[in-house]
Each structure stands twice: as structure tokens, then as C-alpha cells.
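Is this the right way to post C-alpha cells for a design question? Let me know if I should format differently. Anyway, here goes:
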């Protein structure tokens, strides 16, 4: 199988990232709401534990939409997808360590990690749009960490909105054929 075809399979199966971004946006939104109206600790807990359920909830949403929810067994992109999925979870100790020293940096640090995790999606999906998403989260995470650490929920609200927007950007790109990274 050629790379272009494998990427097309990923784009079509996961709707240009629509379901994953939508579920991720929902987790970030719940975390932002908890942080704003209850406590930073509850917001952090929702972000961390909710993050572990993003892929299964993505598959559930795709099933509910009557759509394919996974690539076929043996697909060449399955391995890369699994590796990417573990990048955020394996780097959470860094986020938690930073947040122990500076609680206001929890969301900015998580934004940087999540933004970096989207870089390989450019290849996985063959979509340049993931580069824009990555750059936006990376740069906003750094800016919020430097200039707004006293307002921790701002990063969570920002990330939720960006993820919802990119859910529809990805879906639109796949529907119109404007997604190819080439």
C-alpha cells in the first residue's frame, strides 16, 4: 500500500480528525468549566482522566454516527496511531511536575504537550491542518504560561474552542478534498 492511500484511509475513517477533536474539545471544555467554577484541582483531574478516554469515546462517537470506527487490522498506519496515542500519557509526569511547582502552568504545559503530539498527525492523516493546530496550541501554551499563569482556566477554554473549530475544519477539508498535505 502506498503512503498516500494509507493516509486517505486514515482521513476517511476518522473524518479528518472530526470525532477525535470533538471528543477532545469536550474533555477540555469540561475541564475548563470545572476549573472556572469549582477548582483547578478538579479541572486538572478531569483533563488527565478524561484524556485517557479520548480514543474509546472517539470510536463510540464514530459508531453512533454510523461510520467506520477503526482502521482494518494490519493497516500500515495502525502502529503510528498507537505510538502517537501514548505520547501525551507518557509525558504527563512532566506536566504534573511543573504543576506542582507552579499550579498556573498546568494548562499551558498540557497545551504544549498536546500541541506537540499533533505534529505526527500531519503525516498520519496527510493533512497540513494538523500543523496549524499544533502551532496554535504550542505557541498559545507558551504565551499563556509566560503571560497569564494567574488565570489557569484561560488555556483550557482556549484549547476547547480551538479543538472544536479544528474538528469542523478537518471534516470540511476531507469532504471538499482540501486536506492533502502534498
Amino acid at each position: 500500500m502506498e503512503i498516500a492511500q494509507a493516509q486517505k484511509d486514515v482521513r476517511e475513517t476518522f473524518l479528518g480528525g472530526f470525532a477525535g477533536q470533538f471528543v477532545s474539545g469536550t474533555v477540555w471544555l469540561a475541564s475548563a468549566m470545572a476549573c472556572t467554577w469549582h477548582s483547578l484541582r478538579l479541572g486538572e483531574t478531569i483533563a488527565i482522566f478524561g484524556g485517557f478516554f479520548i480514543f474509546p469515546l472517539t470510536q463510540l462517537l464514530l459508531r453512533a454516527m454510523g461510520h467506520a470506527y477503526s482502521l482494518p487490522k494490519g493497516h500500515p498506519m495502525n502502529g503510528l496511531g498507537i505510538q502517537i496515542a501514548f505520547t501525551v500519557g507518557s509525558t504527563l509526569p512532566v506536566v504534573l511536575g511543573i504543576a506542582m511547582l507552579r499550579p498556573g502552568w498546568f494548562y499551558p504545559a498540557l497545551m504544549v504537550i498536546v500541541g506537540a503530539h499533533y505534529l505526527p498527525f500531519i503525516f498520519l492523516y496527510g493533512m497540513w491542518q494538523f500543523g496549524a493546530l499544533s502551532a496554535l496550541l504550542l505557541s498559545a501554551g507558551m504565551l499563556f504560561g509566560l503571560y497569564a499563569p494567574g488565570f489557569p482556566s484561560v488555556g483550557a477554554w482556549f484549547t476547547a474552542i480551538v479543538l472544536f473549530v479544528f474538528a469542523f475544519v478537518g471534516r470540511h477539508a476531507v469532504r471538499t478534498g482540501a486536506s492533502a498535505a502534498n
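Format looks fine. Someone answered above. Worth noting: The chain is about 75% helix and 0% strand. Residues 15-61+83-175 form one domain.
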